[in-house]
Amino acid sequence: MTAIALFGAGGKMGCRLSANLKGSAFEVRHVEPSETGRARLSGELGIQAVEADVALEGADVVILAVPDTAIQKVAASIEAKLKAGTIVVVLDAAAPAAGHLPHRPDLTYFVTHPCHPPIFNDETELDAKRDFFGGVAAKQHIVSALMQGPEEHWAVGEEIARVIWAPVMRSHRVTVEQIALLEPGLSETVCASLLFVMRQAMDECVRRGVPREAARDFLLGHMNVLGAVIFEETPGVFSDACNKAIEFGIPALMRDDWKKVFEPEEIAESIRRIT
Q1: Which of 63, 91, 200, 210 is most buried (most C-beta within 10 Å)?
Q2: What is the pLDDT of residues 139-161, one digit of tens each?
Q3: Rounded to an integer, what distance in angstroms lies between the CA atom of residue 151 and that of residue 267?
Q4: Which runs of E-coded beta strand occur in 106-192?
């Protein structure tokens, strides 16, 4: 049985992973330094945390479910206790891309991240429809990268990823650099920023007299139908009026050089701020 040492097991992300790993085919040792996290593990999941040294004894895999800013410190604190061939799983590309993992060629580094449940889905049960993050009831896709280590460790890492992010549909194999393009580049710098602007635009309509509920219903409904056409979820074309609005709207809203956010130096700077 593969033994996993899960660090940060009682945190926000760690509890999600602990719940999904419970009853799996893995032997899981839970490490949580905070009293609040230990109480959460015990009270919500009936799991008792252990000390780091106990968890690491003979561990085949170490999962670092800790904040990006803590990855370097935690990894450095356990480096000397990791046997050659240990698979270290990190849940975001930021710290690995920033070089915050120990220089140990004899370790395997596996990076995995959820895509989260897609806007266009076939969920019918209420708990799945309201599982916006994923990893509880709603199906989602995932991306993963074998940053370093033998090829046979890919299968082990992906098996763990499918369990911690379950239920999983597609599992995409990419590189760490590509995950960094997706996040923070695509998902946060671009998508989150533009969604925030859309919310500000809705609030501006409300400020100008449109009832808030009407503005919200109108925007969310149009996000659905416009998104379905733009992302080819359904066949369709926009009206001439809509195409004309897009033609004039993009230059009014976007800088000509906005795609520079995907340049390596921009991604690196964004990661530096995160970590």
Answers
A1: 63
A2: 999 999 999 999 999 999 999 99
A3: 27
A4: 108-114, 140-148, 168-173
Question: Strands 108-114, 140-148: parallel, antiparallel or unpaired by DSSP?
Answer: antiparallel
| Domain end residue (candidates: 121, 145, 174) | 174
Considering the domain architecture, whether residues 29 and 142 belong to the same structural domain is answered as: yes
CATH number of 80's domain: 3.40.50.720
How many structural domains does the chain have?
A: 2
Structure tokens belonging to residue 220: 């969310």
Name the one residue in this structure whose structure tokens are 């998104």. Answer: 227
Strands of the chain (E only): list them: 3-7, 27-31, 61-64, 87-90, 108-114, 140-148, 168-173
pTM value is 0.95
Residue 229, domain extent: 181-274
94 and 138 assigned to the same domain: yes
Query: CB atoms < 10 A from the CB of 207, how many?
Result: 10
Q: Are residues 190 and 167 in the same domain?
A: no
- C-alpha–C-alpha distance, residues 7 and 107, integer Å: 17
pLDDT tens, 13-71?
A: 999 999 999 999 999 999 999 999 999 999 999 999 999 999 999 999 999 999 999 99
